[in-house]
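Lab manual, section 2.4: Encoding a predicted structure.

Procedure: take the sequence of the chain (381 residues), apply the prediction step described in section 2.3, and record the output as structure tokens. A sample record is shown.
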Amino acid sequence: MAIAALGNIILTPSFASEQARIAYSISAVALLVISAISYYFAGTRYYLEQRRFDIIAIGSILAAGTILAVAGTYGEGAPEDLLASFVLVLLGLLLWSTAIFWVANVKGYLIIAAAMVAIFIAYDMTLDYSIFQHLQRSLVAITMLAMGFVANWEMDHRAREIFRGLQKLDVEREKTETLLYNVLPQAVAKRLRAGEVVADSFSDISIIFIDVIGFSKLSKQLSPGHLVEQLNGFFLIADECADRYGIEKVKTIGDCYLAVSGGTASSGHGAKDAVNFAKDVIAAMQDKVKDSGVDIKLRCGIHSGPVVGGVVGVNRLAYDYWGDTMNIASRIEGAALPNGIAVSETTYYQCATSHEFGSPETIALKGVGDMQIYRLKTEVA
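Recorded output:
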């Protein structure tokens, strides 16, 4: 491109008329203006939103303005070489418009642009010009072709960079969403992404605490790796049972598994599914004990009542629940027998027709006081 431009300057014929030089200068300025505007818009968000058609419109307006300016200056008496120069102006505009229209298709642009330049050179050879004039005009056409190629390639390069950047952004966004959905219920994650403060009030949900009995003693009997393996087996069983009954896993606290029935991400039917879930976890864990030989016993406490749920903080996001109902459920779990399930009076009345319980017992719960609990009769021995 530089060589063609330099050759064009050297070979600009001194014998060309003043009108021809003026026409050439006007066309050169017009192309430079179009180049500057197009180059600017190609690097902005406007180009991505409005695409190439707006740039073509700008080029067309400038082209019309150039032609009108020259036509208004010379009128109907324009000399023949000036009219011939208009072909160069139109060729330049066509090459530039093609470069924009065929962005991200460099090969397609080169084929069309080369064909247009070849047609121009063939036409130019029919004019009564000297060899130097033909050479000069051909160099002008080649220079404009080179300028269009550089512009097309640059826009293609930018478009590809933007496309690759958007692809990487989509991948990272999917990773972030996947991670967010793994730690938060999907509905909660969407609310957080929308900038909403997540805080909910529940009038009646069932809180489930399942704990490993004698975990401290067990930790002394097993190696750290074996202990973690057994604990992970317990949590895996609980997760599978939670999925089966639509129970929402809230979190694990040491060797304790905390879940709710009837919360934000629950599809279960309150206390009934909470008791069924606990029964299946204990039963499945006892089957695992037979295979592993490690005597692990569980106990479960369930209480139903009002709680508040929400997401607090910005680091290690988690949807959690708070309220006296949580504390009472935790205390009831401590009063359950090995491989047994104890429930509060409110939970009992919600599922008394679907499960068989023993007689009510009044026990003193730390921080709560005297409270009636019921023990599920179908406890695993």
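Check your result against the sample. The radius of gyration is 40 Å.
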